[in-house]
Amino acid sequence: MNIKNKKKINYKYPKILLTGGTGQLGNELKKNLQSLGEVWSPNSKQFNLAEPETLREKIKYYQPDLIINSAAYTAVDQAELNSKLVSCINVVSTKVLAEEAFCLQIPLIHYSTDYVFDGSQKTPYTESDKPNPINVYGKTKLDGEHEIQKNHNQYLILRTSWLFGLYGKNFYTTMLQLFKEKKTVNVVNDQVGSPTSIEFLAKATLEILSQLKKNEEENRWGVYHLAGEEQMTWFDFAKKIYKQEKNSNNFIIEKILPISHKKYLTEATRPNFSVLNCDLIQKNFEYIYKKFSKTDI
Ligand SMILES: NC(=O)c1ccc[n+]([C@@H]2O[C@H](COP(=O)([O-])OP(=O)(O)OC[C@H]3O[C@@H](n4cnc5c(N)ncnc54)[C@H](OP(=O)(O)O)[C@@H]3O)[C@@H](O)[C@H]2O)c1
User: Fold this and answer.
1) What total of structural domains would you count in the chain?
2) What CATH number did the domain enclosing 104 receive?
3) 14: closest CA among 75, 55, 65?
4) Which residue range forms the structural domain that includes residue 59?
5) CB contact set of 288 (below 8 Å; sequence gap of 6+)
6) Which residue among 62, 111, 125, 137 is the active-site one?
7) Are 188 and 261 in contact (CB under 8 A)?
8) Residue 8's pLDDT band (cuts 50, 70, 90)
9) Which of 31, 45, 67, 74 to mutate to test the pocket of ligand 1 (most atoms within 8 A of CB)?
10) For residue 179, is pLDDT > 80?
11) CA separation for the pair 274, 295 (Å, rounded)
């Protein structure tokens, strides 16, 4: 690590530790964060969340002014078969990050998920609705939230949902590929959520960081929902992707067909409804949605 002593006085957060920089969101954050400070974004070998205790000395050595944790074990179905590893990455390491951020008295920004809810509700979930995860991924993400709440006082836990973008493996890029390879694609039409643009989420995070006060007057720490504004099923989402991309791609797809999730078997059970109510973040951090208005596909 040759990153010590690179503090620049004019930056709001002179040294930022960003985990998960190779991931979809982390990659987008990396592009945007330079305006706030010097970013150290180690890869998963240099900073391995599967070995939580090794992280402490690296954080102590780097002495960040801000930690953003966009890394996680995110493979929802595989998580069912690897619960020990998932728990290590999503819970134990999150606890270590929270404890170290507390020692340094620096903010921790952490991302969580709509999958902390069971989907039994019919109206968008607020931050005060009771979580009840129904798969290993959701359970570990909720346990990770609890570790932060127990061990730190300056944190933002941003629960988001259905991330999409043109980078990495997500529903959007999967559909693009399938539309090029298949004449018929079946898509689940009885699970409802809110697609969230990765570009929007990264920019909104930056806006929130720039609005945060750098003193004890700041009292907006806590859990927030931050997701796209529209709600839809995966099937609706697939049709929108088709409409948006058909003129610039060589699709061979002829039919996109709606199916029940019961016909699409996966290791993990997913909530049937996981739309997040994002009123609180809009109230506490002004202009986020107005500023980056085109959050929907
Ligand atoms: N994707 C979604 O639809 C969605 C929905 C709701 C919430 N979220 C949350 O949003 C955040 C970002 O998600 P994403 O989709 O951008 O994730 P992603 O693309 O799957 O990227 C995950 C990142 O975590 C890193 N990582 C995994 N295991 C690691 C380890 N042992 N040590 C260090 N780093 C490790 C990966 O590094 P490698 O590349 O080296 O493996 C990668 O950089 C996560 O907290 C996720 O839970 C995502």
Assistant:
1) 1
2) 3.40.50.720
3) 65
4) 15-165+195-230+274-291
5) 204, 207, 208, 226, 281, 282
6) 137
7) yes
8) very low
9) 74
10) yes
11) 17
